[in-house]
């Protein structure tokens, strides 16, 4: 029989080590709020304060079920008893302690579970644990200040968590405690926490989310408004209904459901300014949003399926699962990450690939259109119109229905050619005509245009979706530069019309196609400029 050897952890070293489990202020605060929601709170109040002497305090209060004295002792125990409700956002019995100690050296829990009963207080002081090298919590009668803070943050029942000796609240120490710079840093921190809670708990903050009960969260008395990353009033859910439900097997062999949805937004240029602010179409907001019991636990990337890049900005994916799948997805203490099985990732990739491709194409198309709107060709058209002695063919007849014409050119008279023919063309686009697309994806093609139904003359159509147009034209700093390239392309079109026949025309087409293809290859890794 083996001999049992008691080997308790070194309290001083372990308590210090647990401060470095990866929490930052935002994830630590969300973990404390999880406990309030687990206690059935309808209102959660958070406040961050700096005293005149530079001491920093953070208060988390709720009007939940509260705890008695034994409940407080359990709450401050590392690895506290498992909650009765397995759906609870509190999971391992570690969050309160590890989250709090990551920010401060002393944290108190003050609570009552029956209206009118006395408050109870238990607290943890890391310096005391270090001095005694024992896992010891402390209790004392709540002070008048504790009562005042409880009344300000909690209900008739509820719990108040107080962080003090906050040595890790801010990213740097300020020379003058309570200075204007430090106060400004705290204000920024409050705003970041508001934004964080607005996203992480948006399904609980939004009354329209009927699957989850309503909660109000305030930061220094400012109500947190939910921010739904999918904005159903703006974006469209594009996955077929049969693809939105996933059946996943647990380690015990049971089958549990998860849901998958893909949301595509309009391009920001197609949104009104107010809707643009709501949508927040940015690289950092694309990707897969993973929820456990309605609480966001991971976002901001594609879980390795794709690399974040601007052309994916219009797509966001929603993945939801319940507590019964915790072990399958490896939900950790901080509840800010998730591990998905390779087979599941492959299935998700296959399911949302069409949506990813569609969102990418929509972004590129609208971005190209946006770029094109900023380019004018009127000076080029005016210059060509005012230069009558250019070398170009004489147009004898045009047949718009069959895209054919006969011309007199350097190859002879009555030469038959195939070409695009435009009638009743806007005079501002008569000679240089930007178009949405050109056959074979070329950059340019010659055509015959007229502002009426006759008197057609040489013109050139330029493909607004070609990379040269969106990436080079768009970055020309002056209208004169645009005019220069316009005139070059028009001159090439005139030269083609003036030196072609039925035998040579395919050769000219091949030259245009090869030039256009090479330009596209050369510009493949050049980004379309942002027009914001």
Could you list some keywords that capture this structure?
single chain, 532 residues, alpha+beta, six-stranded mixed β-sheet, 22% strand
Into which percent range does the helicity of residues fall?
Answer: 25-40%
Distance between the termini: 74 Å
Biggest sheet character:
8 strands, mixed
What is the overall pLDDT average?
89
**Beta-strand segment tally:** 21
Main sheet: which strands, in order across?
A: 5-4-3-6-2-1-7-8
Q: Could you tell me the radius of gyration in angstroms?
A: 34 Å
Shape assignment:
elongated
Strand content: 15-25%
Number of helices in the DSSP assignment: 15
Point out poorly predicted stretches.
none
Main structural class: alpha+beta
Written description of the protein model:
The chain is an alpha+beta fold. It is built from 15 helices and 21 strands. The strands form four sheets. The protein has an eight-stranded mixed sheet, with helices on both faces. Strands 9, 10, 11, 12, 13 and 14 form a six-stranded mixed sheet that branches. Strands 18-20-21-19 form a four-stranded mixed sheet. A hairpin with a 2-residue loop joins strand 7 and strand 8. Helix 1 packs antiparallel against helix 5, helix 2 packs antiparallel against helix 4 and helix 2 crosses helix 7. The longest helix has 32 residues. The termini are far apart.
